[in-house]
Amino acid sequence: MRFAAYLICIVVSAVAVGLFAQIREKWIVPVNDDQRQNSDRQPKVAGISHYPTRSGLSQLQYPAHDVDLLEAELVKQRYKVVSLKDQEATRGSIEQALRDAGELVDRRSRTFLFFFSGHGFADKGSNCLATFEATSGNLAGSGLAVAAVETLVLTGTRTPP
User: Fold this and answer.
1) Taking 70 as the threshold, does the pLDDT of residue 34 lie above it?
2) Which one, of 41, 37, 63, 35, lies nearest residue 119 by Cα?
3) N or C, where is the chain less crowded by C-beta within 10 Å?
């Protein structure tokens, strides 16, 4: 009886590990060379670990490292990645990168990758990203609203359609 319990535990563990491995493999799906050559897909990745001292926002340990890891994986798959880290990840530079992406988005498949690692917040019913120049005293005015990100990618402008 004890042997049967060990065997069942081993089988269940093996199935769980196999399912997890299958799920992880689907996080970044490589495209073949024909798709890549016929596409101008340029993932935009931004991460802010070190906010200005007087911003009122705490420092974070991993965002810039997250960007490095994701960028390395995408570059291995031969994507042209636009990455913005720390002081490069201002609201203006992120907006411009998204505007540029709006012109390149594959309208048929609606494929686009934008990754942000840093502080985020909700203010007055709006979800926002804390860009490099964001301040705790004016989060809605100094951050980048998620709705604005969506609009920039879909229309290339900041104003909702």
Assistant:
1) no
2) 63
3) N
